[in-house]
Design a protein that fits this description.
The chain is built from eight helices and eight strands; from the N terminus they run βααβααβββααααβββ. It is α/β, with parallel strands linked by helices. The strands form two sheets. Strands 1-6-7-8 form a four-stranded mixed sheet. Strands 2-5-4-3 form a four-stranded mixed sheet, with helices on both faces. It is elongated, with a radius of gyration of 23 Å.
């Protein structure tokens, strides 16, 4: 007996992602973008966006602050520790889905503007030439220092991270590979041309790109790999469900004493756990169990 099964997990995921960014001042076009482009743009936006959650703040030994910036830095630290919205301090390019943050891709470093008041008619702090550089993880913020806008390529930034928090970089260490001794100008050229590189630290430690690296097209390599993995997994789950319709019908009858004439699935949670709702019966399936 052929069992009618309706399932489109990629589209379900896109709808969840669309709702996820509704409150941000960005527009993901669910109709015009291909499935892959839509998911990539969402995931890369989430990498660039600082998710609101309380974090522990740490300062490098090299961190120096001029008196004129102390209040705004204190405000940023307060917002980071409380899990408040950091969007007013970051680049306005967060609203541009096609913008590629090369510094973030390379060293996993965000920057904050240090204006002392908001711009007129926007939620953004006044833009400044001086920027606060920080590396942000799920639970911690590592304050590197205050630099100029033109310092995005200064290898000193990566060296400060290494000197202060090398214990947080273990997963990025490369072994059996010789790094390069590069100038800041060469790093700028490499980024402009989407060329990945491995930089020698003073103790000859070599790291893979902390921010995921980039392909020749400028896509963030780690995000790209994750998107490929997710889309492949969801398609494989769809194939499994379509090939095992009777198994699901039997399970629905066993769990609810209900018979349904066809199956209609919706992705309701992802990725951990990965839950599918069979809409006719109201039964939820944890596919990864």
């Amino acid at each position: 007996m052929d069992i009618k099964i309706k399932i489109d997990l990629i589209n379900d995921l896109k709808i969840k992602m669309f709702k996820n960014v509704e409150n941000l001042n960005v527009k993901l076009d669910i109709e015009k973008l291909s499935d892959w482009d839509f998911i990539y743009k969402h995931q890369y936006l989430m990498k660039r966006f600082i998710i609101q959650k309380p974090r522990n703040v740490h300062f490098s030994k090299e961190f120096l602050i001029e008196k004129r910036f102390k209040k705004i830095v204190d405000n940023i630290v307060y917002d980071l520790e409380k899990g408040n919205d950091l969007t007013p301090y970051i680049s306005k390019r967060i609203e541009k889905l096609d913008f590629i943050d090369k510094m973030l891709n390379d060293w996993d470093v965000h920057h904050f503007h240090l204006g002392d008041c908001h711009e007129e008619d926007t939620n953004y702090i006044i833009r400044t030439n001086e920027l606060l550089f920080a590396r942000i993880t799920d639970d911690d913020v590592y304050m590197i220092g205050i630099y100029k806008h033109g310092d995005l390529y200064k290898q000193e930034i990566l060296r400060v991270i290494h000197a202060n928090w090398s214990d947080t970089l273990v997963d990025y260490k490369l072994f059996g590979i010789n790094g390069s001794d590069l100038t800041d100008k060469e790093i700028k050229s490499f980024r402009r041309n989407n060329v990945c590189y491995a930089l020698n630290m003073d103790d000859d430690t070599v790291y893979a790109p902390l921010g995921g690296g980039y392909t020749s097209s400028g896509h963030n390599l780690k995000v790209l790999i994750d998107v490929d993995r997710v889309t492949k997994m969801l398609r494989e789950i769809e194939t499994f469900v379509k090939s095992n319709g009777q198994l699901f019908l039997d399970e629905i009858e066993n769990r609810s004493n209900t018979k349904v004439s066809y199956l209609e699935f919706e992705l309701i949670d992802f990725p951990n756990p990965l839950l599918l709702l069979e809409k006719n019966s109201g039964i939820t399936f944890n596919i990864m169990d």
